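SAMPLE LOG
Freezer: B-3
Tube label: C17
Construct: single chain, 118 aa
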Amino acid sequence: RLVESGGGLVQPGGSLTLSCVASGFSIGSYDMSWVRQAPGKGPEWVAHTSRSGLSKYYSDLVKGRFTISRDNTKNTLYLQMNNLKPEDTAVYYCHAYKRAWGKDYNYWGQGTQVAVSS
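STRUCTURE (predicted):
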């Protein structure tokens, strides 16, 4: 199970930090990502981190403003979001993925709402 938190209403230019806590499994063996979905639009990949956290990838739309990180000892994924823009408004989901023994393992959280508005 994955549970996101930290969303809310923020003014343009503001910051938020999202957290995603896993239970029932250890994220240390999973690649982790953040995906968002804006009202009326399809899902959009935001950022990805490898199992160790050493490799990180970002959508061009958030590069330089968002930072993905993980603490495997706390079984938690984070997304630090700075200089937020109205177009960042969306429900943000965390996703855990691994492939093992020929099978895909996927976990999704329930999402946390981020609204950027003045």
